[in-house]
UniProtKB/TrEMBL annotation:
Residues 5-120 form the Semialdehyde dehydrogenase NAD-binding domain. It comes from Apilactobacillus apisilvae. This is Aspartate-semialdehyde dehydrogenase. Belongs to the aspartate-semialdehyde dehydrogenase family. The keyword Magnesium does not apply. PANTHER family: ASPARTATE-SEMIALDEHYDE DEHYDROGENASE, DEHYDROGENASE, PUTATIVE-RELATED. Phosphate binds at R100. Gene3D superfamilies: Dihydrodipicolinate Reductase, domain 2, NAD(P)-binding Rossmann-like Domain. Keywords: Amino-acid biosynthesis, Diaminopimelate biosynthesis, Lysine biosynthesis, Methionine biosynthesis, NADP, Oxidoreductase, Threonine biosynthesis. Catalyzes the NADPH-dependent formation of L-aspartate-semialdehyde (L-ASA) by the reductive dephosphorylation of L-aspartyl-4-phosphate. One of its GO terms (molecular function) is aspartate-semialdehyde dehydrogenase activity. The lineage of its organism: Bacteria, Bacillati, Bacillota, Bacilli, Lactobacillales.
């Protein structure tokens, strides 16, 4: 069996440490593994399948001899290093937003659009965490009944902003309970002018504000959904709008998803059956026994959970649904490794001659 030299870029981050674990529990045959980060973590030792591996500072030469890169070190590091890795013959699955909207880069959720993998030119993008869990739940409905519009409100966990944001949130909660002043230096978003505590609070801002009062996270949900489901980031035949909110939960995002199908004969029972038959999504929908998806139960699981599916009483063909998934696993590390498994299965771990060169 063919084996691969793999590198994980950003191996010490909230997503990266889970990539190491997901890779160890995957079908990807690993010949060697390099763990890469910034100078800050160089020398740290991490475990992979019982093997102790020392984290190295990333340079372009780090990718010499590497076949497959799983990247999660932020957009700037991906833009700097992934073209270098591709030039050296490595296929990269990138978890950052650096290449997601590039028409030359497939944006892939294996349960939804795996056929796009074969179009890669060396880089495959992993969608944003909040988009992934929504499309995993909606895609089977879209394929069977068609979709006209989606209105989503998210309830996103602190860890979605990285390990340092999660640490800040825990410290705020501790300080608040001890009657101390809470301080905030990261959330709602590291690069913005003001910072607010998340503990015992809600922050209706994820990432920076862009056109017409939408945040970049909301913009990503709209256009990534269209690119994944219709292969066109600006498609107008599916209408999508989003409100993204950071909530004081450590891990796993929740989403209230309102959607309208094209086939008006579809009932809530049809929608539930379609979702329960689909890959990667588990139906947890039993109001009589108070069964519905919750962040605490989703943490550490690879699948997406859907429930509270019910018809809009006044608009036929419209439904409400509640979706939860571990943002660090299905929203990031597992989707990346799952894409890598598919690339291996389909013998696509090779860089084509017309490789990505921007
Ligand atoms: N958290 C989520 O739920 C989630 C979901 C989907 C996508 N993402 C995306 O995934 C990426 C990483 O997120 P995260 O939450 O894991 O962040 P994080 O906890 O802050 O970790 C960042 C990682 O990147 C490394 N790094 C930073 N700058 C680097 C550089 N210049 N060169 C090499 N390595 C560098 C860090 O290494 P050091 O230890 O040396 O600092 C660390 O390993 C981001 O682009 C994020 O938007 C995150």
């Amino acid at each position: 069996m063919k084996e691969y030299n793999v590198a994980i870029l950003g191996a010490t981050g909230a997503v990266g440490i889970r990539m190491v674990d997901q890779l160890a529990n995957s079908t990807v045959p690993v010949k060697s593994l390099k763990l890469l980060a910034s100078a800050h973590s160089a020398g740290k030792v991490m475990d992979f399948n019982g093997e102790k591996i020392t984290v190295e500072e990333t340079t372009p030469e780090s990718f010499d001899g590497v076949d497959l890169v799983l990247a999660s070190a932020g957009g700037a590091a991906s833009k700097k290093f992934l073209p270098e890795a591709v030039k050296r013959g490595a296929v990269c699955v990138d978890n950052t937003s650096a290449f997601r909207m590039d028409p030359e880069v497939p944006l892939v959720v294996p349960e939804v659009n795996p056929e796009q993998l074969k179009n890669h030119k060396g880089i495959i993008a992993n969608p944003n965490c909040s988009t992934i869990q929504m499309v995993v739940a909606l895609a089977p409905v879209f394929k069977k009944y068609g979709l006209k519009q989606v209105i989503v409100s998210t309830y996103q966990a602190a860890s979605g902003a990285g390990q340092s944001a999660l640490n800040e949130f825990y410290q705020q909660a501790k300080d608040y309970l001890e009657g101390k002043q809470m301080s905030a230096d990261i959330l709602p978003t590291a690069g913005d002018k003001k910072h607010y505590p998340l503990a015992f609070n809600l922050l209706p801002q994820i990432d920076v504000f862009e056109d017409e009062g939408y945040t970049h996270e909301e913009w990503k949900m709209i256009h990534e959904t269209k690119k994944i489901m219709l292969n066109d980031m600006d498609a107008t035949d599916l209408k999508v709008t989003a409100t993204c909110v950071r909530v004081p939960v450590p891990i796993s995002h929740g989403e209230s998803v309102y959607f309208e199908v094209e086939d008006k004969s579809a009932t809530a029972e049809d929608i539930k059956k379609t979702i329960s038959d689909a890959a990667g999504v588990t139906l947890q929908d039993d109001p009589d026994h108070q069964v519905y998806p919750q962040p605490l139960n989703a943490e550490g699981k690879r699948e997406t959970f859907a429930g509270r599916i019910r018809p809009d009483q006044e608009n036929k063909g419209c439904f409400n649904m509640w979706v939860v998934a571990d943002n660090l696993l299905k929203g990031a590390a597992w989707n990346t490794v799952e894409n890598a498994e598919r690339l291996v299965d389909e013998d696509l771990v090779k860089v084509p001659k017309n490789y990505y060169q921007k």
